[in-house]
Specification:
Layout (H helix, E strand, L loop, with lengths): L7 H15 L7 H13 L4 H18 L7 H12 L10 H4 L10 E6 L6 H14 L4 E6 L4 H14 L3 E2 L7 H14 L4 E6 L6 H15 L9 E7 L4 H13 L4 E5 L9 H8 L4 E5 L7 E3 L2 H8 L2
Parallel strand pairs: 1-4, 1-5, 2-3, 2-4, 5-6, 6-7
Antiparallel strand pairs: 7-8
Helix pairs in contact: 1-2, 2-3, 3-11, 4-12, 6-7, 8-9
The structure holds guanosine-5'-diphosphate.
Function: Involved in targeting and insertion of nascent membrane proteins into the cytoplasmic membrane. Acts as a receptor for the complex formed by the signal recognition particle (SRP) and the ribosome-nascent chain (RNC).
Main location: membrane
GO biological process, one term: SRP-dependent cotranslational protein targeting to membrane
């Protein structure tokens, strides 16, 4: 899976600024480090993570005495990839396997959360396609019942991918939709059930209550469901995505992240910041509107495509 196209804007911006930071310089000195700091902040890596990266490079420069600017790319890549290692749960993570064996012979249930407009429905469609193409039986549950568009769009995605969508229409009880979707998944011996939910972050208590009610109700069918809670974030909003992630992880237990819309933004560095700051692995990144524009996040591939 090549990321070069999906990350083009971030990459070009990174590359241009990095080139400016080192122009006419042969060694990595204070000034280069200062410039590098603003390059990282500008790419929405976030201040805390930027400081960590700069610290690491500073130490390295102090240790190695002479570090040429031609090596900066490589060093930056190594240090960032290394920094991201702690949240990298590898390619065999349960969410990617979505295996009945991981869920006691029952469907693997994924609850998808995130605020409106971040690309939640699209990501569910892409995930459905991903699992369906891998030969898995998928059921979708349209439990974002606050917006007619969300229900309709999920139904369209279901048709497009060729998987059933359980829906009771708009303004119905989201928990009841989730219950029926999980029940349908059991009856069909599905491998994966993906539940869309409404994400009204402005009312945190409501959000928490609603998400826990959805969980409680689906647990009447499968006691340890959901097996994953996937939070979808819009990467093109940069630091805003980061703030949302913080809020959501307070409202419910999030087990993995999907960061969308990285194709249209130069703020792709936010993935690095989020991945470093939150104790939740980034599992997928969205790099376009098509069914196939969802990639498994791999820190090395990601960092390599930003700096090469
Ligand atoms: P929701 O309200 O969170 O369910 O958001 P939608 O799934 O309806 O997506 C909102 C808009 O973002 C739609 O126009 C999608 O096509 C678009 N979108 C979603 N993911 C991506 C992505 O990875 N890249 C791009 N360019 N657009 C995306």
């Amino acid at each position: 899976e090549s990321l070069d196209k999906g990350l083009e804007k971030t990459k070009t911006s990174f590359f241009d600024q990095l080139s400016k930071a080192v122009v006419g310089k042969s060694t990595v000195d204070e000034e280069v480090l200062d410039d590098l700091e603003s390059v990282l902040v500008h790419a929405d890596v976030g201040i805390d993570t930027t400081v960590k990266v700069i610290d690491r490079i500073e130490k390295r420069v102090a240790r190695d005495k002479y570090v040429g600017t031609s090596e900066l790319d490589r060093i930056l890549r190594e240090e960032i990839a290394d920094l991201l290692q702690k949240n990298d749960s590898g390619s065999t993570a349960v969410l990617e396997r979505a295996d009945r064996e991981d869920s006691g012979g029952q469907p693997f249930v994924i609850m998808v959360v995130g605020v409106n407009g971040v690309g939640k429905t699209t990501t569910i469609g892409k995930l459905a396609h991903r699992f369906h193409s891998a030969g898995k039986k998928v059921v979708l549950g349209a439990a974002d019942t606050f917006r007619a568009a969300a229900v309709d769009q999920l139904i369209i995605w279901g048709q497009r991918v060729g998987v059933p969508v359980i829906s009771h229409g708009m303004n119905t009880d989201p928990a009841s939709v989730a219950y029926d979707a999980v029940k349908k998944g059991v009856e069909m011996q599905a491998d994966v059930v993906i539940i869309d939910t409404a994400g009204r972050l402005h009312n945190k208590v409501n959000l928490m209550n609603e998400l826990s009610k959805i969980k409680r109700v689906m647990q009447k069918v499968i006691p340890d469901a959901p097996h994953e809670v996937l939070l979808v974030l819009d990467g093109s909003t940069g630091q805003n995505a980061f703030l949302q992630a913080k809020e959501f992880t307070k409202a419910t237990e999030v087990s993995a992240l999907a960061i969308t819309k990285l194709d249209g933004t130069a703020k792709g560095g936010v993935v690095i910041g989020i991945s470093d700051q939150l104790n939740v692995p980034v599992r997928y990144i969205g790099v376009g509107e098509k069914m196939t524009d969802l990639q498994l996040f791999d820190r090395r591939t990601f960092v390599d495509s930003l700096f090469s």
